[in-house]
Every structure is written in C-alpha cells, then in structure tokens.
Amino acid sequence: MQAQRRETMIPSAGTQLPADLSVPPGSSEVVLFAHGSGSSRRSPRNTEVARQLNEAALATVLVDLLTGDEDEPEAIHGDLRFDISLLTDRLIDIVDWVRADPQLGKLPIGLFGASTGAAAALSAAAARPDAVRAVVSRGGRPDLAGPALADVQAPTLLLVGGRDEQVRELNERALDALPPSAQLRVVPGATHLFEEPGALTQVADQAKSWFAANR
Q1: 31, 58, 100, 103: which has the fewest Cβ within 10 Å?
Q2: What's 140's domain CATH number?
Q3: Where are the alpha helices (DSSP H) in 78-163?
Q4: How far apart are the C-alpha atoms of 205 and 56, rounded to whole Å?
Q5: Span 145-193, pLDDT tens digits
C-alpha cells in the first residue's frame, strides 16, 4: 500500500504554514523537517530524504516555516531566514499540532533539520523534551541554537559532508555543547548540499537508523 499524502495548513501565532504530510501504512514514527535558509518544503534534497524515510515506514511532515509573503522580500534581505527564535517558535507550534493530530499524535516524533533549520530543530527539542525523541541535522548550523544546546535531551546526530570543512568545524564546536548522547558523523566526499551520487542515500540511511534506535 502507498503512503497517504495530504496537504494542510498548520496554524502558528496568527499565521498559517503550508505543510505536506506523507503517512505510510503502519508508520512507526513521524519526522518533522525544518529546512534551511533559501529552501522550502519542496526542496529536492529534503523531499528525497523524506521519500526514503517513507519507504522505511516513517511518516513525514515537510513545512514552510515562513509564509509566502514573508519569504519573498527575505530573498533579498534574509533577516527572517536567520531569525532562529521565530523559526523555533513555529516549529514548536508544529510539534504541538502533530501531538494533537488524530492520525499522527500517537507516534514518536523526530526532527530533521538542515542548515539554519537544524538550529530551530535543536531549540525546539530543548523546549519540548517530553515530545521530541530524536534529532538529525544534515549540513546544519547547530551552533546557531546557542545556549539551547545544553538543554537538548533528545539524542542528536550531526551529519556533515567530508568536504564541507567550515560547517564541520561549526558542528564540532556544537557537539561539545550538546549532551554526551550526541554524535557527529561525516559523509565521505560530500559537500554542503550532499549533491554527490549516493550522498543523500547515506544521509537517509543514517537518519533511519538513528530514529529507529531512539524511539
């Protein structure tokens, strides 16, 4: 049987955030995606990882953390895309929405963050320790979560490309601030966007294993 797919709008502090849901039969967990600056819920990288998670019976929720009106002018200025506090508040609202959803509410919740979305995912995990079971960051900026890193209880996996040296250094620093359960793993030969053949499959495989081990 194929996954059930639906589009919806998730309310957050007076606005509505568009979301794409995919729920395979017998889903064992739901993973919320927090994309990075300059991206969207239709990012080919996140949708490919989500597809592979769906094949492993993980439900996925891909959401735009900024509305269309907010995103257009920010393509030039970028202020909201780096407003980690705003992105975190909205991701927390999405976590609460999932917990109240009749179809998804009984499933363990994992967070998958990319770029600046990783900082929002970690901050949201720190704010909702009773709800978020695990976090995976792909080429993320966990350092932007700041003091919230010390409050993250969910087991966290930081994935970086072997050729993404600057982001790898930032992840190494963030790892020192996270609890001992956190791990940093390098995908050999991958650059920041993981565009190399097989790189995203390695990300998806690592994510599937991490979420399965930490439900």
Answers
A1: 100
A2: 3.40.50.1820
A3: 84-100, 116-127
A4: 10
A5: 999 999 999 999 999 999 999 999 999 999 999 999 999 999 999 999 8
